[in-house]
Amino acid sequence: MLEITDLHATVDGKAILNGLTLSVGAGQVHAIMGPNGAGKSTLSYVLAGRAGYEVTGGSVTLDGRDLLALPAHERAAAGLFLGLQYPVEIPGVSNLLFLRTALNAQRKLRGEAEASGAEFMKLIKVEAEGLGLSMDMLKRPVNVGFSGGEKKRNEMVQMAVLRPRVAVLDETDSGLDIDALRVVADGINRMRAPDRATLLITHYQRVLDYVVPDRVHVLVAGRIERSGGPELAHQLEREGYVRVAA
């Protein structure tokens, strides 16, 4: 589903990704772990098409389609979702307006009919209730006045409504207490399906107690240095990145 081959990328002229190769199949959850500065967030931004991140080599395909040839909004319409480590606030724009606009923009690019107001409200109520986000919060400006946990739950609602083919989640567990972590993990698990894939970027093993990955990859200096099953995350927790990736 998501195929990354020998990917090289720079930021401000500095090489960050140095030949990263990774394949995430349909129905799978892959976790990427690594030390600070390894290139984890850079990978997520490159996949999403963020400005300032220059690809200097390699390829990325989503369902066989050249992802790197598409602008950011077309990557989203093709089925890519990026969950941010630090979700931004958007004053003056309600969650409801933001999400309905995003959903219908993607549907339009795919040649699908737009969601009616009634259809959209039915969909978002179901997803928001499942993630403990009230309708009052959905009427508020995007992430304004939200706690860290509420922002991450809000992102899970966004993901559930948009139903991406591939979700790239950049440290979604960052800054969460145990209750919020469980809610967010439940949101990720609810999206698991045979026709979807998830790339979960994290520093810590604890989220993987709730979202059990099919594969765990160790990213060091812009390359995947080691891959394994869920037990690799426990080994990293015990021994650290230097010993495991050596």
UniProtKB/TrEMBL annotation:
Database matches in CDD domains: ABC_FeS_Assembly
Keywords: ATP-binding, Nucleotide-binding
A Pfam family: ABC_tran
ABC transporter domain sequence ranges: 2-246
InterPro entries: AAA+_ATPase, ABC_transporter-like_ATP-bd, ABC_transporter-like_CS, FeS-cluster_ATPase_SufC, P-loop_NTPase
GO MF, any single term: ATP binding
Entry keyword tRNA-binding: no
Family label: Belongs to the ABC transporter superfamily. Ycf16 family.
Protein name: Fe-S cluster assembly ATPase SufC
Organism: Glacieibacterium frigidum
Gene name for this UniProt entry: sufC
